[in-house]
Write a structure and sequence with these properties.
With 362 residues, the chain is an alpha/beta fold. Helices cover 33% and strands 19% of the residues. Strands 1, 2, 3, 6, 7, 8, 9, 10, 11, 12 and 13 form an eleven-stranded mixed beta sheet that branches.
Length: 362
């Protein structure tokens, strides 16, 4: 991503530079008299004590966590740290090659990662390997698509993205404020694969974005867009998905999501071992634990946000209600009808962000 905007999968914009003092603001649940410690840079879904405690108890280790938002923030923290300060990194899957290029992630023996029970499409070797060597493993994934209140809109309409541009729902739409997935969805609505977005077809995407903005009520970040949908301020959220509605499924059963016939965008997050870690064996053990079925189920249903576990065996540890909220039985169809985020070069990324800024200002 360019320096103009650095966001994580949930799209929260990083606008400040983290200082060295942030490094002491670690959290973690530790067993009594833990003899070892490892330090991990993670997303908020890794901070539940129920996720950490089994690993800590089994290994007599304390896991110190530093939560961050956005790859740029992680790089800032790492730049201000000493070699060996960090052992584990959770990172947007699309940014793994960048972390490898900058010498941040170390190679992991492929045979040490149990991916045989993963959803095949989610092993995603194109992200997690570089020059045939493995540096990370996908731990969780999900979709940016269409979320809605099924008590207020026709669910059948939501299966066709053309409904977003119809007069029927004008003024009842929120747009998630993250340019990559929403531009990607807009491209899909125009019949353009995300891998084929270029400077020439950005004109068509721009016109569609501006048209969608004129029919929308707000453009909001994670919290404001989720709140608008949950409170009934809007009935549809473009760019939403299970990470918006699944965590609210018990409290707000009318909130739903679907991948329309035109397709959706798929996000993923990966976990790896830091190249300069002094505790690579213990760090690898943590990676192996996080991708185990039991831990995957806890990660999938974290208090921060929900998402699909990469390991299919996690389903044995999820309730029927949780699996329904995650669309467990639809994954074969959803995986085949979803595409990865756009991966623009610097020039195209600048153009995308300029178009996004224009849309926001109109």
């Amino acid at each position: 991503m360019s320096a103009k905007a650095v966001r994580n999968i949930n799209g929260r914009l990083i606008t400040t530079t983290l200082s060295i003092s942030c490094l002491v603001a670690m959290t973690g649940t530790s067993p009594v008299l833990a003899q070892e410690e490892i330090n991990a840079l993670v997303w908020c879904d890794h901070t539940d004590s129920a996720l950490l405690e089994p690993f800590e108890s089994a290994n007599n280790v304390k896991v110190n966590l530093k939560e961050y938002e956005g790859t740029g923030a992680a790089l800032s923290i790492i730049d201000q740290s000493r070699p060996g300060d960090w052992d584990v990194l959770v990172i947007d899957g699309i940014d793994v090659p960048r972390a490898v290029e900058e010498g941040i992630l170390g190679e992991i023996p492929a045979e040490a990662l149990a991916t045989a029970d993963f959803f095949p499409e989610i092993v995603m070797e194109e992200n997690n390997t570089v020059d045939g060597k493995t540096y990370a493993i996908t731990e969780k994934y999900g979709y940016n698509t269409i979320s809605f209140d099924k008590s207020k809109v026709d669910p059948e309409d939501m299966k066709d993205m053309a409904s977003i541009w119809s007069d029927k729902y004008a003024g009842r739409i929120a747009i998630y404020d993250y340019y990559l997935p929403v531009i990607g969805l807009t491209a899909l609505a125009a019949g353009i694969d995300t891998a084929n977005i270029n400077e020439e077809n950005m004109d068509e995407i721009r016109e569609r974005l501006l048209s969608m903005k004129s029919a929308s009520k707000l453009v909001g970040d994670v919290v404001s867009s989720q709140t608008a949908l949950a409170t009934g301020e809007v009935d549809i959220l473009v760019g939403g998905g299970e990470w918006v509605t699944a965590v609210l499924s018990a409290e707000k059963p009318d909130l739903d999501w679907v991948i329309p016939e035109q397709g959706g965008l798929r996000w993923s997050q990966s976990i790896g071992v830091m190249a300069d870690s002094d505790k690579k064996d213990l760090a690898l053990a943590f990676v192996q634990y996080i991708t185990s079925p039991e831990a995957q189920a806890k990660l999938a249903t974290s208090s921060c946000y929900w998402g699909m576990p990469a390991n299919k065996l996690a389903g044995e540890h999820l309730s029927d209600e949780q699996k329904t909220a995650l669309r467990w039985d639809d994954q074969t169809q959803y995986l085949s009808n979803s595409q990865l985020y756009p991966a623009p070069d610097a020039d195209l990324d600048d153009l995308m962000q300029d178009v996004w800024t224009e849309m926001l200002q109109n």
